[in-house]
Amino acid sequence: MVGYNLKNSEPPISMEDGDSRGYGSLRTLQDCVHCGFCLPSCPTYRVLGTESDSPRGRIDLMKAYANGEIGISNSLMEHISLCLVCRNCETACPSGVRFGWAMDATRARLEEEIHRSVTDRISRRIFFSVFENLAVLRTVMRLLRLSNFLPFMRLSRLLGFSQFSQFIPVTQNVLKNSSGFINPGGRLYKADGNRPATRKVGFLVGCIMSTLLADIDHATLRVLNKNACDVVLCKGQTCCGAMHLHEGEREKAKTLARKNIDAFSKYPDIEAIIVNSSGCGAQMKEYGVLLEDDLKYHKKAEEFSSKVKDLSEFLCGSQLNTSFTSLPDMKVTYQDPCHLVHGQGIRKEPREILRQIPGIHLQEMEDSEQCCGAAGIYSVLNPGMSEQILSSRINSINKTGAKVVVASNPPCIIQYSTRFQNTGDSRRVMHLAELLDQAYSS
Amino acid sequence: MIPITQSLRDDFIRELGREKVLHTKEDLLPYRYDAFALVKGEAGLAVLPSSTHDVSTIVKICNKNGIPFLARGAGTSLSGGSIPLENCIVILFSKMNRILEIDYDNRTVLAEAGATNISISSAVADRGMMYAPDPSSQLVCTIGGNIAHNSGGLHTLKYGVTTNHILAAEVVLHDGEIVQIGSKARERIGYDLLGLVNGADGTIAVVTRALLKIIPKPRNVKTLLAEFGSVEHAGDASSEIISSGTLPAAMELMDNLVISAIEDSIHAAGYRKDVGAILLVEVDGPEDENELDSRRVIEICYRNHSTAVKVAEDESQRQRFWSGRKGAFASMGRLGTNYIVQDGVIPRSNIAEALAKIGSIGRQFNLRIANVFHAGDGNLHPLIIFNEANGETEKAIKASVETIRICTELGGSITGEHGIGIEKRDLMGLMFNEKDLELMRWVKEVFDPNMLCNPCKVIPQGSRCLELIPGLAIK
Lengths: 442, 475
Known about the structure:
The complex is a heterodimer of chains A (442) and B (475). Chain A has helices at residues 23-26, 43-48, 55-66, 74-81, 88-92, 99-113, 118-132, 134-146, 149-158, 162-165, 167-177, 207-210, 214-226, 242-246, 250-265, 278-285, 287-290, 298-307, 311-317, 338-344, 348-356, 378-381, 383-400, 410-422, 432-441; strands at residues 188-189, 199-204, 229-232, 272-275, 308-310, 330-334, 360-362, 404-406, 428-430. By secondary structure, chain A is an alpha/beta fold. Chain A has a five-stranded mixed beta sheet. In chain A, strands 7-6-8-9 form a four-stranded parallel beta sheet. The longest helix of chain A is centred in the C-terminal third of the chain and has 18 residues, at 383-400. In chain B, helix 8 crosses helix 10 (287-303) and helix 8 (231-243) runs antiparallel to helix 12. At the A-B interface, helix 3 and helix 4 of A face helix 2 of B.
């Protein structure tokens, strides 16, 4: 007979260790009341139907691991790494569990304890380091642009990046067509002369945005200039660290956060820090949480975070310049980027802006708040699941008849454009800034 | 208890395929809970059927080997109905969630047991129809689970519970045989076997499909939110509304503690946190009748000292009024680490008395008790807030039993809609004597002679099943 021991059913999560292991962020797990309201929101539960691949199940696993009830196993790693950290469950959760924080902290602890092979460790080290220094990243991207892609495929396989090699042709294609990379050396982009400059803002150029998708950064700068903003590309800024945090490299993420805080605090006269990629925005708005136990940086982090604004949030909050020239009639649909809608609670603003652009007809798709399966580098690490999730999004888009998908986050953009390109689909994915830019300049 | 051996697992894999059998510790661990968090079970194995045939195969293997089994939908049972005891096999219905047929001529929907409650209404919404029972967890909970607990919801008052909206079911019996109970014909002939399956907490058979009734969505709906200085005034108002001859579609009462928790959660509905109680009343029907009803409700509320009555101006405000109530239980995480939600029923004329007594239980045990309930049919949901880490669990359970005792003393029942499950099993004695229970055991044995179907639920079984919740058994 099994005894159902009530008293010891749930030992409280120990919080003795320092924050480097993310215990602070695990505390939120105790708010889960097992109601199950999160299940239908979860993309992996929708596909698999298994509790361990649902938020409630993963919460139980994370608690059990934190309490020492279960140890590291392949099965645990599978369930944990299959999570997209899309945070849709946070929107669904009535008890306010911050699932994303807990998952980031759990992955950080696992990363410390699991044994990785030497090649695995080296390839991870190289991969993450590239993003830690924007100059290095620009160099790598330049090489990518110049070289025939075959040697790169070989090299990446050699380094254990075989999963990434599928992206190289797409990447090259994008790079060939893109204009110059953006180097955040402190340059000031003056507001458009037609309107008096009233505000000065900082701009996070982003790692992928300033290189692979530099066109979007250029468009964003023009849009901000059209909206009476002097934009300064604050010197010393770097990658936001979201990718590092979500993949368990918590200490690296903290280092990057501190660098950005230092870089932007050198410009006290900027009233906002504008971000055009939602993953970075969500990350930077939560620097305060990441650095909660860092006495020196905690307060600065919170100040920094309070200035961070998504492009759509900022434009909607101020008087949007609506002197558009009409675009040719175009039916678009809007994909809510997870870390914009679930991470930052922004859903109305981008739609409001879209509705104001003449010629644009917004046709909502079913489940627009469901993840597209990109989720940072998830699509590379879990291609099978990512494909299945993407397919259900494509089905929703098909029903709208839209020719353009608006999604304002680099992974979503790459995910959709890869699919469209590989299937010879003439539809396009665009960033909100690109549409606005076209409407201002056409 | 029979252990799940490697060879037994291989039997399942051979018959169903590897991808339908979950067996690692991590795969199984989360099935130890459902939304009733007081008891932890343990799944021996979990299987993911995709058809009735699969379910039959699973049950056959279980029956042959004497292994108990349990059907699980979304695991939102508030009474532990879907917690696996006796190391049983958990049959998951998450892949059996299709809607198979919509028949507007006969106003029926045929759905698999794993279909969510809301999916039925969504499927017929564009024709202005709906599936009436609407538990607060309707976005998640499944039809199979609704049948097991004979679930109601906010609109039970006017439209009834699951048993009033089901015409037929396809079930798998204890030996794997697949049978149909009921048909599209509205008359039931002979003994009401479908009635037996409804509300049996899945202890009679495994439901795989259900034929459900759909009804036209009411065209005119008015939702009123009345604020009161005290719960007693709100309770009096609700009694007077019923006795006045008005039949609201729904009538919900929430006290201050619940309102605060909701307003601090994502379900914040814009309720005022400084009021003593809120009465949410919804009236529907033909336009003139609707207008009359709502005027009468407003009048009664003010007569019973309501401080303000707001009428939802449009559908979005109506949804907002309801979103708070629907998220009430789940918002309890805002008040304390743990809570027990009780589910007692009283004759509605005793609401004010019952609430006063529940208040004194809270003082006696020094625990906060929040109240939210279906005022129209006297179905109380006292929420007992406690902190497990402070060793308050047993005290909280005792307090919750006392609230139930009050309900039976007032001539009510130990459950309105959450089912017996694990939670109320040992409280059955409050309502039934040994002879009644013996009769129920006979019925159970007719359908499940080897006692394998959702073991240790509903009927107290003496030495066979352990006392699951210390302090809960009544002497």
